[in-house]
Amino acid sequence: MKKYIVLVFALFTIQFASKAQQIDTLSITLENVKYAYPVQFLNLVTEGQDVRMAYMDVKPTAKNNGKTVMLFHGKNFGGYYWTEVIKSLSADGYRVIVPDQIGFGKSSKPFIHYSFHQLAAWNKKLLDTLGVQKVAVLGHSMGGMLATRFALLFPEQTEKLLLENPIGLEDYKTFVPFVSTQQQYQTELKATAESIRKYYQSSYLTIWKPEYDELVKVAAGVTFSADFPRYAKVAAMTFTMIYEQPVVYEFQNIKVPTVLFIGKEDRTIVGKGLLTPDQQAIHGQYQLLGKQTAAKIFGAKLIELEGIGHIPHIENPTEFLILLKGSLL
């Protein structure tokens, strides 16, 4: 009996230790998350606050082809999930610039009015600081909304607009019930590793793979930080930004060469949890939204990916990178 109790206790200890190792406490600016390439910072001042915009500036590892690609991450991510894309592009001679937007990743988390116009202007300032005159901009998810705004504001700097399962292909405020930033803040505070993993599994990734747990570890690790309330408040503020600042009505104004990469199994809706199952069934249908959006943008090319959800560059990096590189030529 004594041996049995010792064995049970040992198993419990191992399981507990394993779980503790799976989700480590992370700071809300991800100081303890190692990015694949050196991180630098652009100092900015906004609304009377000093803030820092983190970015990676990765030089070509092969013969420089003279071209630069800028990568805009999604709302629930940062520069850390672009590693394979950066590696592949730099190996083909591209300079790759990867910012963490203000409010995300390793960048500052200020309480400000979040605006796609302002984020786009900061990215333009980053390019000016680095002496880069033209870029191809690849935006994933929320980064697709930002990349669209960037191309609309700065067409002369935008060599190509590349949209990877962008959100904002619908005007969410026309069918998702309004919640205040304060109400959304209360929702964000409830985030756990379990809820984050469930959300990723149900909304983002078609077939769950063990390596996707690394994405969960980063997103969930910050929930254990003493500063998590600030992180949650900023997340609520950027939710409001997405909800209140649609780009869907301006696709016809895009004047730069555009390519849409659409995982057809994507069912992402911002505010999906506020909808009934019947409402969820008629929105977030990317196999339709991709076609509708491409038809609005003059000369746009649509590339559809079968059996892929919201993050093609993670779900099928080999296929995505082949298609991406072909579109950059």
Describe the fold and architecture.
The protein is an alpha/beta fold and 329 residues long. The chain has one domain (28-328): Rossmann fold. It has twelve helices and eight strands. The longest helix is centred in the first third of the chain and has 21 residues, at 2-22. It is globular. The model is unreliable at 1-21 (pLDDT under 50).
> How does the helix and strand content classify structurally?
alpha/beta
Radius of gyration: 20 Å
**Strand order within the widest beta sheet:** 1-2-4-3-5-6-7-8
| Overall pLDDT confidence | 93
| Anisotropy-based shape | globular
Which regions contain 5 or more consecutive residues with pLDDT less than 50?
1-21
Q: Please report the number of helical segments.
A: 12
Distance between the termini: 70 Å
- Second CATH tier, the architecture: 3-Layer(aba) Sandwich
* CATH topology grouping: Rossmann fold
Number of domains: 1
How is the main sheet built? 8 strands, mixed
| Secondary structure tally: strands | 8
**Name of the level-1 CATH class:** Alpha Beta
What share of the residues does DSSP label as strand, in percent? 15-25%
Order of helices and strands: HEEEHEHEHEHHHHEHHEHH
Name of the CATH superfamily: Alpha/Beta hydrolase fold, catalytic domain
